[in-house]
């Protein structure tokens, strides 16, 4: 969407429909940090002398898998001291300086004056650590050889990673995997959901979830209809007891998705969670998953 708006229009003077923060088709990149050009020998010395720590390397590995993170998400997962906000800010600045991470700043024609959280992705030196120290094949996740990515595509990861952070905090999470390839035996069709994760229940059983995450694009209604049909077949024949979780941005989208799920016969094993639930500090994630009964929300309390 952002590539269709005239670049001579000043964002702070445009009037377009307001969209939610992590589902905004009018979002665009305002600044993308240049890639650093440190030789790996220089970075290896920084590791040897302790300027780059084991925690820094763990952050690099995590960002490689999870693609895009916000500062608050990095803080939640890797920094636990009493002055964690300041510690996180200073440490991430160092990772940017050495090129382990790279920062993306953005704005939107929808809410031009609202502060937007910067996104952090793998930097050139971070890629070199993974490549030369751990022998990892990076492909298009190497920032020097990337595939084009829209802001909506990045936002899918940001929203999913916010869910991940809260799952780690609120539950005993035993597995989380991005983009598993699933095959339906009866239809011989494939589907690649956003993520697959498993939580351990109080009685010690692992509960399997598949996550689909939809943002504001013109194909999402058609896509979710196909997904509903696929997961109905998968869960009723191969993954009995699994739950399909649909992460969307608003009540309107959740209700529309629920109607499609009902039409396709997939409503009995589909739960919903919204961006607003994830970013609502007054409501724990345990009470944020819901389904619909007779068109009305019914929230679960996952104790």
Structural descriptors:
303 residues, alpha+beta, 36% helix, globular
Q: Would you mind describing this structure in some detail?
A:
The chain is of the alpha+beta class. It has helices spanning 40-48, 54-66, 71-78, 84-98, 124-133, 151-170, 220-237, 251-263, 275-278; strands at 27-32, 101-108, 119-122, 173-178, 182-184, 189-191, 195-200, 206-213, 243-248, 270-274, 290-293, 296-299. The strands form four sheets. It has a five-stranded mixed beta sheet with strand order 4-7-8-9-10, with helices on both faces. Strands 1-2-3 form a three-stranded antiparallel beta sheet, with helices on both faces. It has a two-stranded antiparallel sheet with strand order 5-6. β11 and β12 (296-299) form a beta hairpin. α3 (71-78) crosses α4 (84-98) and α7 packs across α8 (251-263). The longest helix is centred in the middle third of the chain and has 20 residues, at 151-170. The model has no long low-confidence stretch (mean pLDDT 92).
